[in-house]
Specification:
With about 300 residues, this protein is of the alpha/beta class. It has 8 helices and 12 strands. Strand 10 and strand 11 form a beta hairpin.
């Protein structure tokens, strides 16, 4: 049996996590009150309300990255207020998916400017509707009202100065979606990778809204170019990691794609590829946040041009 790859989630000892109460992180339970985790001075991680939410506390107020699900926004709002009652100045969205943006209205508190890529604003003005995936009924997301949308839109890049640091926003055109932005906090050396990195298993790649396997791999390579061995990398979902963790994640994706492509070259159908369980030994963990068959479905359809 081939040795399974494990993405390391261990962080440098200098990073202090406050009150991590449950190892089965994240959970997304509606009745769960989640403790915040201070990952760097004045930078907090809140994990369980749809995605990894980041709160940066500065003299001028709060900067928040992503806003989770709308149904969790009241509880998330309470956790953020417990961190600080300073005014909320910015909400930065990593992309347009519902688990990252549907809390925008509540979390912005009517005062924060929402920042996202121009494509994210355009996507949110229209219905999100994708085919069912491997028998799973995918919920249709209706267009968002104006107060959920970005007030400030970027195209290729943006540098935002906040709390004596600069936050570099970088857009990737065709990766997880066509709306992806990563945020690199330069002095703190923290990379907010959004859904370009899942540290808890296989990723979702939204091939129906501009995402591609090739673009995702190129985006990861670009992120690796920016990061060093001391960079703290926050994925969209899963435990915080580091550059080595992202390298192993990239290797896992590369090997997975290679195996699926090899079976496709043998003339296997999608069902035959899934039934052969080509990725059964490639990820180690309780279970992948994204099921293996869903990931295979995505890769197969992307490589076949469907």
């Amino acid at each position: 049996m081939k040795k399974k790859q494990l993405i390391p989630f261990c962080l440098p000892l200098m990073i202090c996590f406050i009150s991590i109460s449950n190892p089965s992180y994240p959970q997304n339970q509606e009745n769960k009150i989640v403790n915040k985790h201070m990952i760097k001075p004045n930078i907090f991680l809140i994990p369980d309300y749809g995605c990894n939410v980041i709160v940066i506390v500065g003299q001028e107020g709060l900067l928040i990255v992503d806003s989770g699900y709308k149904r969790f926004s009241m509880k998330l709002d309470s956790v953020i207020s417990d961190i600080s009652n300073l005014p909320r100045k910015y909400i930065l969205n990593t992309h347009f998916h519902v688990d990252h943006v549907s809390g925008n209205k509540k979390i912005s508190d009517g005062t924060a400017d929402i920042i996202a890529h121009d494509n994210a604003r355009k996507r949110m003005l229209s219905e999100w509707n994708v085919p069912d995936v491997q028998g799973r009924n995918v919920r249709v997301i209706p267009p968002y009202p104006e107060d959920f949308l970005a007030d400030i839109c970027l195209n290729d890049s943006l540098v935002l100065f906040f709390n004596n640091d600069n936050i570099q926003a970088i857009h990737f055109t065709d990766a997880h979606t066509d709306t992806d932005v990563v945020y690199y906090i330069r002095k703190a050396n923290v990379m907010l990778a959004g859904d370009l990195f899942f540290s808890n298993g296989f990723p979702i790649i939204d091939i129906y809204y501009g995402g591609t396997i090739d673009g995702c791999m190129k985006a990861i390579d670009k992120i690796l170019d920016i990061c060093d061995s001391n960079t703290l990398i926050i994925p969209g979902h899963g435990m915080p990691s580091n550059r080595r963790g992202l390298v192993l994640y990239r290797n896992m994706l590369s090997e997975s794609i290679s195996r699926i492509h090899k079976l496709m070259e043998q003339g296997k159908t999608l069902k035959q590829v899934i039934d052969s369980d080509p990725l059964g030994d490639i990820y180690e963990g309780d279970s992948s946040w994204v099921p293996e068959d869903v990931f295979i479905h995505t890769v197969f359809n992307d490589l076949s041009g469907k």
